[in-house]
Design goal:
Blueprint: H1 10-13, H2 18-30, H3 37-55, E1 59-61, E2 65-67, E3 70-81, E4 94-98, E5 102-107, E6 112-113, E7 119-129, E8 132-147, E9 152-161, E10 166-175, E11 191-194, E12 199-206, E13 214-216, E14 221-224, E15 230-236, E16 247-249, E17 254-264, H4 266-272, E18 284-294, E19 300-311, H5 314-334, H6 338-341, H7 344-367, E20 370-374, E21 377-379, H8 384-396, H9 402-409, E22 410-412
Parallel strand pairs: 11-19
Antiparallel strand pairs: 1-9, 2-3, 3-8, 4-5, 5-7, 6-7, 7-8, 9-10, 12-17, 13-16, 13-18, 14-18, 15-17, 18-19, 20-21, 20-22
Helix pairs in contact: 5-7, 5-8, 7-8, 7-9
Length: 414
């Protein structure tokens, strides 16, 4: 008989031998298999995408928020999973809301204005109740205002969903507009700066917001229209005497949180105000730009001017008047007869005393809208030169009564 030329598979050929067939299958199972690298990379990409989808399963949506005189529009930008909350959720700086299945948190100091006219919020959303939160996700949201409205705190409605169930929450958060937040200071009368000494000029500011503080930044600046009159002008904050910090104005608060520190240049000021007529309202103007923002809101600024009137140190006025009186008295003494010259010490003292009284009366009447007219010119008696001229005329003329001083040198404005 011839041989069978058909070669069946090994497993079939071992069919009558069950032990050998089982042993062969076990050896094939233990043999190492080669993996396809392309298949492995494809598996990793798929797993990565699946992981991202699972991590971002909690979706946050904020519908447009209407406010008085405008609307705030919210847009989600990015989201990422995080292991834990990066802050203490029981802190006073944290706003939180709970639904049946979700918890959402916002850290107020994290809110801040961006470069392109938006405000950034960071929401932290998780499943469950703190501290046991699953799928914790940080969602970055941009808010843009539409309309003219002030910064304010409102109830913001949130929609939370994982694709299967949707729940709503409400967080009380600040929203930010572009309307002015500070009342513009208005200096009706010039600020008086004493010649030769540093002069702090307080600037009273009013916060127009009812529920948010305002921060006035140290980058605020002040400039003079006549810089040669000053050795130094700068913005200072009384709450921060060491400098470099900002000033805080609480809601509805009005107080001088800003001071313009001005140091006059003595000789330049004396030269510029040598003939200070009363019709000149100010000797210089300081232009102030205050940069500020509500905490977390858009940067803003307010500009205003401070008229400045230089005034000498008060005792120096009487010294100038006394000097003028002695000069006038000496001129009169040169034309006096010898008998009169013998009594000049007493006459000089009497003239100086009378000059002091005349300068005091001139200052008092000037404060009551009266004027000092010398040689047909309306002078300001609070300045050195008018005080000197007043003393010289009192010393030169033989005045003996207060009434004569009032009648000659002052008269009520019409």
């Amino acid at each position: 008989m011839g041989r069978n030329q058909h070669n069946p598979p090994l497993t079939r050929s071992l069919a009558p031998f069950p032990r050998e067939r089982a042993r062969l299958r076990a050896s094939e199972a233990q043999r190492p298999r080669r993996e396809c690298p392309v298949l492995r990379v494809t598996q990793l990409i798929v797993l990565s995408l699946l992981g991202t989808a699972v991590a971002g399963a909690i979706d946050l949506r904020i519908p447009p928020q209407p406010v008085k005189n405008g609307t705030v529009f919210f847009t989600n930008t990015t989201g990422e999973t995080i292991p834990t909350l990066p802050f203490d959720y029981t802190s006073d700086d944290v706003r939180s809301a709970m639904t049946n299945h979700y918890a959402v948190f916002v850290l107020i100091p994290d809110i801040g204005a961006g470069k392109y006219e938006y405000v950034r919020y960071r929401f932290y959303v998780g499943l469950g109740k703190p501290p046991n939160l699953e799928g914790l996700t940080r969602v970055n949201v941009q808010a843009r205002p539409d309309g003219q409205f002030k910064d304010q705190v409102v109830d913001v409605k949130l929609q939370l969903t994982d694709g299967a169930m949707t729940e709503e929450a409400v967080l009380r958060l600040p929203v930010y507009g572009t309307a002015a937040l500070l009342e513009k200071p208005n200096f009706q009368t010039p600020a008086e700066v004493t010649i030769g000494s540093a002069a702090p000029i307080p600037v009273s500011l009013q916060n127009l917001l009812t529920d948010l503080p305002i921060v006035v930044h140290a980058t605020s600046k002040v400039t003079s229209r006549n810089p040669r009159l000053w050795s130094r002008v700068a913005i200072q904050f009384p709450d921060d005497p060491r400098g470099g910090g900002d000033a805080l104005l609480l809601p509805n608060e009005t107080r001088p949180v800003v001071v313009v520190a001005a140091q006059p240049n003595l000789w330049q000021v004396i030269g510029a105000t040598l003939v200070p007529v009363a019709s000149r309202n100010a000797d210089d103007h300081l232009d102030v730009e205050l940069r500020y923002a509500s905490r977390g809101g858009y940067p803003q600024h307010v500009e205003f001017e401070i008229p400045v009137r230089f005034a000498p140190w008060f005792p120096l006025l009487f010294a100038a008047a006394a000097l003028g009186a002695l000069v006038g008295f000496l001129v009169r003494l040169l034309n006096a007869v010898p008998a009169d010259r013998a009594a000049w010490p007493k006459l000089a003292i009497a003239t100086v005393l009378l000059t002091f009284i005349g300068e005091a009366i001139a200052l008092l009447l000037h404060s009551k809208d009266s004027r000092l007219v010398l040689f047909g010119v309306d002078f300001d008696p609070t300045q050195l030169l008018p005080a000197t001229l007043l003393g010289a005329m009192i010393g030169f003329q033989k005045l003996t009564t207060i009434d004569s001083v009032i009648a000659i040198f002052t008269r009520k404005k019409q």
